[in-house]
Specification:
two-stranded parallel sheet, 7 helices, single chain, mainly alpha, about 290 residues, binds copper (I) ion, about 0% strand
Length: about 290
């Protein structure tokens, strides 16, 4: 039986408590930081050599689908009632709405050092010390809406524009493409500053703090954000029946993207799965 992932605004008090408790237990065991490390390790961009898997590439969606699934499996080994909820930022658009409540992820960072001081992940609670990629401090940081230079969350219209694109991705399969569902959702744009951050990327910018870089997994909102991104892939498939992951075949030897992207039937590192095998997960979970 497939389990369900819920909209965070529909969680009961008990569901919130159990989700938080499972995250804290995973952190206490030292396993949570393995996920932070893995995300840092796979943070390869266009400008670097080598295979891109997690970002700026077609496999952005299957990579994060598998990544959330692995985390969710670890949480469910601790408490089998737990699933990763999703944050629909087209509806929950304020720093005072969910998921920023004291009984879930806690609130904004304080003004002078962006330190989160409320909720279960506040440093002073002693259960959420940042261990990977510590630059400014060992505490969780946020700057919701970016106080000094305010920024809005992406709109429903922007998300719809991504969902309406019937093509999954196009050559050269990187952060520069302007067509295709994948980059319209991942959100690499042209121009400078906030005008160039769209959809998925813009949400990372809006949350700020540790969510800005490769160590973004240090903020548990990462999972709620990526569950919602993952839901968009499912919606896109429903809207464009028969459309599938691209590229179907690997870029040819001698071309710029040779060995830089994962094709539909190739292995998606670090796992022994292909993008094709991750296209339909309806037997594992579904969204409500
Ligand atoms: Cu990522
Ligand atoms: Cu992300």
């Amino acid at each position: 039986m497939a389990y369900t992932r819920k909209d965070v605004s529909t969680l009961t008090a008990t569901e919130k408590r159990r989700f938080v408790r499972a995250l804290l237990e995973l952190k206490r065991r030292g396993e949570y930081d393995d996920y932070v490390r893995m995300h840092i390790e796979y943070y390869t961009s266009d400008g670097e050599d080598g295979l891109r898997t997690a970002h700026m590439a077609p496999s952005f969606l299957p990579w994060h689908r598998k990544f959330v699934l692995e985390l969710e499996r670890a949480l469910r080994r601790i408490d089998d009632s737990v699933t990763v909820p999703y944050w629909d930022w087209t509806h929950l658009r304020s720093a005072r709405s969910l998921p920023w409540s004291d009984d879930l992820l806690g609130g904004n960072g304080r003004s002078w050092d962006q330190q989160v001081t409320t909720g279960p992940f506040a440093y002073r609670e002693g259960n959420w010390t940042i261990k990977e990629n510590v630059t400014d401090g060992r505490f969780l940081t946020r700057d919701l809406g970016r106080a000094r230079d305010p920024l809005e969350l992406p709109t429903r219209t922007e998300l719809e524009a991504a969902l309406n694109d019937p093509v999954y991705d196009v050559s050269p399969w990187d952060s520069t493409v302007t067509r295709g569902f994948r980059n319209k959702l991942e959100g690499w744009g042209t121009g400078r500053g906030s005008a160039s951050w769209h959809t998925h990327n813009r949400v990372h910018r809006w949350v700020g703090g540790v969510m800005l870089g490769g160590a973004s997994v240090n903020d548990p909102v990462f999972w709620l954000h990526h569950a919602f991104i993952d839901l968009q892939w499912t919606r896109w498939q429903q809207r464009h029946r028969g459309a599938a992951y691209q590229p179907e075949r690997p870029p040819a030897r001698g071309t710029a993207q040779y060995r830089r992207v994962v094709a539909r039937y190739e292995k998606l590192p670090p796992w022994d799965v292909t993008p094709d095998s991750l296209q339909d997960v309806s037997r594992i979970y579904r969204y409500v």
